[in-house]
Amino acid sequence: MSYPPSVFIIIVNYNGWKDTIECLESLQNVTYPNYRIIVVDNNSTNSSLEYIKKWCIGSIKVSSNFVKYNPDNKPVFYIEYDSETAKSGGTKEKEGYIAGIAPNRSLVLIKSEKNLGFSGGNNIGIRYSLNRNAEYILLLNNDTVVTCDFIERLVEAAESNDRVGAVGGKIFYYNKPNTIAFAGGRIDEIRGNGYHFTDDMFRRPSPVTFLTGCSLLIKAEVFDQVGLLDEYYFLYVEDLDFCFRVQKHGYSLVYVPDSIIYHKEGSSTGRLSPLSLYYSSRNRPYFVHKNVEKHFKVILFWMFYLPTRLLRSIQYGKKGRYIIKGIVDFVVFKIRNNFPSKTS
Q1: Contact by Cβ (8 Å): 109, 48
Q2: Would 343 be classed as within a structural domain?
Q3: CB-CB neighbours of 45 under 10 Å
Q4: In the chain, what percentage of residues exceed pLDDT 70?
Q5: What is the CATH number of the domain that holds 29?
Q6: Nearest to 110 by CA among 99, 96, 100, 120
Q7: Distance from C-alpha of 222 to C-alpha of 67, rounded to nearest angstrom
Q8: Residue 344 forms part of a structural domain
Q9: Is 269 within the bounds of a domain?
Q10: What does the angle CA 123 – CA 333 – CA 216 come to, to the nearest 5 degrees?
Q11: Tens digits of per-residue pLDDT, 105-120?
Q12: Does residue 332 sit in the same domain as residue 224?
């Protein structure tokens, strides 16, 4: 029996060390034998990396309803890189330090010199992973906890067909653990959005058109064809864009109901925070103009989008100005950059 393919798990942290160490604690219990964990810190301002290191040596215990803290899994041996060294695959000396250590007892910490958002932070980890010959790359939100066999189920589905490019599992709400947040999804080009199925209609691995970046396993070869995440998005909609491009290059997406995690939805930025309102409002028209080829769909998008966003901006009071700013900033970007160009 051949050894299971390597899975490099990328977690992006920005000031969220408490969530991150709970996620890391849960990852220590996974049963898949061939994985590596990479934490990319997006230039946190609250000493997140130092707290994560304290967790590594056993100085901080995790309190969780989902995972029991296990002191026997400490210390966790870690190596550190700056972003440029990481993107080239690290160094032989440091990689040798964690070679041979069990996956749940080793960790790669990467310090970004600036906050690059979800897309840029993940791209640092993706470049590192590709240069370390990863066979699969798993994007995982830091505010999640995982079940012990979630990776096996994903890899099984991905290995079932050469044209499967990416797979994702079932996500429950962390605070409502019996309520489904994601059970597959679809892309709506006219609305420039990715919609979550929550009715548990799939009982076996099934093709879908949208998978959330909250937990997304991607074959390494896909990046050679599709490229990395588009860093213009910064936050939100980058997973929609990536799923669209994956399918455009002839790969399929598969939802795997037996792979289960729990997500603290909105804990990173807040569902109605200025950041979420701004970037979601800016990025949806960016996605449509970049990817949707039929002009009538673009027209329909704006016929739907502008009235609903204006209404939302009124409903949200002072926060509503971030919706308007997001739309205006996209329009300015489009004019200045003659977007989309023929090479986009």
Answers
A1: no
A2: no
A3: 8
A4: 97
A5: 3.90.550.60
A6: 120
A7: 33
A8: no
A9: no
A10: 25
A11: 999 999 999 999 999 9
A12: no
Give residue 182's domain range: 7-263
Hey, how many other C-beta atoms are within 10 angstroms of the C-beta on 272? 12
C-alpha–C-alpha distance, residues 257 and 255, integer Å: 6
Based on the fold, state whether residues 298 and 176 are members of the same structural domain: no
pLDDT at position 18 over 90: yes
Q: Check whether residue 135 and residue 207 sit in a common domain.
A: yes
Q: How many domains does the chain have?
A: 2
Q: What pLDDT shows up at residue 269? A: 54
Looking at 243, 263, 283, the residue that finishes a domain is 263
Q: How far apart, in whole angstroms, are the C-alpha atoms of residue 90 and residue 128? A: 7
| pLDDT over 90 percentage in the chain | 94
Question: Quick check: is 296 in a domain?
Answer: yes
Q: What is the pLDDT of residue 3?
A: 84
**pLDDT band for position 266 (cuts 50, 70, 90):** low
Tell me the average pLDDT across 309-326: 95
pLDDT-based confidence at 37, cuts 50/70/90? very high
Q: Which two tokens stand for residue 112?
A: 């970004």
In three-state form (DSSP H/G/I as H, E/B as E, the rest C), the secondary structure along 261-321 is EEECCCCCCCCCCHHHHHHHHHHHHHHHHHHCCCHHHHHHHHHHHHHHHHHHHHHCHHHHH
